[in-house]
Amino acid sequence: MAHQALSETELDELETLLDSEALAGEAMGLDQLQAFLCAVSSAPQAVPRELWLPEALGQAEGEAGARARDLALRLQVQIADDLAQGEGVAPLLYPLEEEGDELDYGTWVDAYLFGTGLGEQPWQEAAGEHWEDLAELMEVFFLLNGSLKEDVLAAGEAWVSPREEARWVQESREALPELVQSVYDFWEARRNIPAPIRREGPKVGRNDPCPCGSGRKYKQCCGKETLH
Predict the structure, then answer these.
(1) Confidence class for position 205, pLDDT limits 50, 70, 90
(2) CA 57, CA 33: separation in Å to the nearest integer?
């Protein structure tokens, strides 16, 4: 079923609602909501709306709250569809300062990382033996919010030069849309791996009586379709 993407007018409306007194200051900003929903839509297991909506909007009561919920739900579907189609999501970023030119990647990344913690299973646990592959993808997020540098310095290890850091940060900013898509693809590939079939009851040999009670051998009865 096709879903109608939010128009620019509806995005502006959602932005205004998120910042309004009607939501009692509990809602995320539009940039945070977009990042948060990118993570929610990429999770290894589906995150129920009943779980993520209160985190995104707070109580969201009354007519304004209902409208905000409707628009947020449509935005989540839109983001999930874009990621499923491999189209990626261009981060919606606000200026770091009111009159500055530098964009606030840290706030966007923090909201994304918050969204990764909402699933039933921690991402590290869900990744299992592939955790190192996921950690490599996630490293850029921790670079862009500054926590990677803090952790390295706190461990008493050497950090890169200011020039190298600036280059690394700039490259990571440019790669962020592709990275968000790559994280989605990482989990999508694992969601599509068939679960192992578990045998219930003892194994039936080819020449054993068929469990169905026909009196024939298993290979001549129900086993015909499975024993090749």
Answers:
(1) low
(2) 9
